[in-house]
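Hey, weird one. I pasted the ATPase sequence into the form twice and got a warning about non-standard characters only the second time. First submission, copied straight from the form history:
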Amino acid sequence: MLCTVCQSTIDPGDSRCPSCGAGVRRPDPDSERRFVTILRADVIDSTGLVAELDPEEAVSRLEPALAAMRGAVRQFGGIVSKELGDGLAAVFGAPIADDNHAPMACHAAIELVRRVASLGDPGLQVRVGLHSGHVVAYMVASEFSKVYEIGGAAQHLAARLEAAAEANQIYASEACQKLAEGHVRFESLGGKSLRGFSQPVPVYRIVGASDLSSWRVRRARSVSRFVDRTTERALLERTAGNAGATRQTVLLLGDAGIGKSRLAHEFVQDLKADGWRLIDAESSPNLQGAPFSTLKRILLSALDAAAKDPGSPRDPRRDLSVIQQAALDAVLDLPISNPHWDELEPHARGRAISDASCAIVRSLADRQRMVVLLEDLHWIDRASDVVVAAIASLQVAGLLVLFTSRPNGMPVWIARCQAEIVAMRPLDDDSGLAMLADMLGSSETNADLKSRIISHTANVPLFIEEVCRGLRDSGTLRGQWGDLALVRPIDELGIPTSIQGVIAARLDRVSKQERSVLQIAATLGPRSNEALLRKIAALSEDVLQGCLVALDRAELLVRIDSELENSLEFRHEMVRQVTYDSMVEKVREDIHARVLSALEGSEGGADDPDKLCYHATRAKDWDKSFSYARASARRCLARSAFTDAADYFETAMRSLDMTPASPAREASAVDVRIEARAAFIASGQIAEWLNLGKEAGRRADAINDIGRKVAAMTVMAAAQNFYGTPVEAVTVGEEVVRLAQEWGNPGWLNAAQYGLGQVYFLAGRYRDADRFFARACAQLSGPEASAPFGSTPKYALLLCCMMNCITHTVMGELDAAEQLQQQAAAIAEETGRPYDRVAAAYSGGWLELGRGDPAAAAAILEDSFVLAQKHGIRLFVPVLACHLGIAYLEQGLFDRARGMLTEAREEARAVGYTSAVLRSSIYLALATHRLGDVRAAQNMLREARNTARQQGFSGLEAEALFGEAVVTPPSDAATKAAILVALRAAIAIASESGALPLKQKAEAMLNDMLARDDRLS
């Protein structure tokens, strides 16, 4: 084996690499994740049955039941994973994957109950529980044997269902019921309280096996129409035409879900309409061990077709010899009266059965053109296989034999009977989209979703249909088939449980080495570089190329033509996902560690911290995960990808916390939270921003680091400005400024002064706000400008200029505001950062509104609003929308104003931006008033005024009071008095705060009302 770090050879007994000293990772090659169905069964009250018996008698009493259980499990392809003394646990769908694991388990349970009941011992009563889910499966080897064990929560639910079942009853989970529905009949028992589960669990009781064929089950579930297949249909039609001269045999070959049965049935229905007789049957996975089960179905269909023949209802068996008639009776499970039949040797009996079956087919084909359709040839029982081969080789004019099969089940005699093999391929993109249009609807609103489904499923019809069904069942798509609407975003399309087994069965057909290569490719992603895969796999070139050729041939991992490099791509994403999900955690960690090592050692590999972070995190290399996540976050910040930056900072913080505790780790934990603030601020995650400051402060306290404590408090105080009330924020902000002055760090003092200025502004203390903004601006404009960690002096200066410009605008000092705005705009022009441009535009729009030019304000704010949304600068979205709505309102565009202000208020609520909620509510009320709803406007303003007063937003309280005066009609003395009270209160607050323009507007309105009253009197 090789070291995952340096790739040196390691002896099997070494615990550490002799070259680099890295610990040896030994993944368990026999462990893997599987999606299976678990069966749990036991004898009821077994203790009471054997309590008074000696050991030999006790074993004799229970062993017949246990033997019956084992036989039923094995008959249907299950593996007994554990015997429990009075019962057993079994698994279906492992160690070899099987997409029919749930139906097979259900049939096994039915057979198990039947076998135990047939023992004739009334004291032996069993109960069975079934559940389908993910497990970890592994082989436990002892000196004498190997046992296939399963682990995980799924087995516990199966055990609880078993314990809840009544005598001779089978209880199944909803997951099992959904997978086996149609193959088995269920009765819903509703939700049951099971031990260990906090909520009632939906439980179903199996009432019997269904007589529906697999095709009819699939057809009943189908919600799409038949599309495309023009090439395959043309070939089938040509073959049918040639059947007039001699027998023709066709095999439709393809993996599960590709559409073999759909094409076959569509085609034979056309033949029936054209006068052909149809004999159809299918091989069943449930009956592979039952001799002649498939042939019996063929013969029953043939005899039924003959009986319905209006032209010649004669029973074709009459033309057979006595021995051949006995042979048919044997296959059809009818009483045999011929004594010579029992005297025949087995070989002679088989020959008679084959001859009789061929004679029946020949007789019917001679009377009328006939098509024999046999589906799922890969599940045929061995006895039927010989006879079907003979039928397929008959030289009879007017006979067409049509088979469907998966590639791994194609019989060896197909070539001998000169069959035409039609390899079924996925649909083309146009046909896939036509299928989706039929299911989802033709609307273009789902165009992106349709493209994602096409890419995800690689146009395999079953996969397309099941993905759509899963989205509808989960409520992601709502409506009726043919008219479905997407109601919430989709992160991942996922893999429906109904097709997990289909894909897993394909993966089980590859060798162990091929599976290993596939796992590495799945870890690398949807597309991988062959050179990188070669380095990680550490296989000889011949072996690697052999694996790649085999995987390409199996259409699992295909080569992509590229002039730059040899690339490999999964045929569709679901194959990659199932491959990745099948690996147990230790195997995944090992491969991710090998990928990480290979990337770090490759040319240019270190230039992609995003990829390195992904693999380091999944390899649980927490030191590297922290380092690469932080590097990725910084790169996202530089690109103004703030939401992505916040996500990477979260990864960095989690990874760091997984490393051993130490003062150095805690110092780094504080630093990364301080640095992360910019990402959380810009993306509008205000609650998280506040928590960053609180957590950083707690950790700084723990290591008694005063400097980091001040930094953390500054971050917390800045968040408090948005998230809390001004009263709380002023107290915190003043304390932070005091501590920053004592500490003597000019960068953090600037940040603290900016934060305190901002909260003074929100509290309506505009002169105090100007004082602190001016101090910060002066220091940041000087030769020794200093900004806090995670920021730059220019960025800090821009924010100070922006806020002080707004402050002077509110106070009516437009010349000072203009100078500050020019300075902010110049910085934004120089840096070109979207965040800086949005910030400068925000104050610019406010200044234009202060100048009385709402059209100019709207032009600035519209562009910045789009820019903020495009780059996810969510903190500015509600305030930009609010002031854009004000600009529309002042231009008389009342409908547009109401729409924009409504959006501003909702976005502010979502972000948690308290002052923006109040301001947008005030101006939304004014727009509502202008549109004629006076009562609603008054209610909104009254609520905003009360909230602003309670929380200390005095500037906004003054604006709300003025708004109340504007929207209240002076219809009588009482309302006039209320208006005068509101105006005088607004004037008083505006005078104290320094909001001169608001004071002047309120005084003008007050004087006008008083003058009108004087004229009237």
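That's the output from the first submission. The warning seems to come from a hidden character in my clipboard, not from the data itself. The domain at 31-209 is CATH 3.30.70.1230 (Alpha-Beta Plaits).
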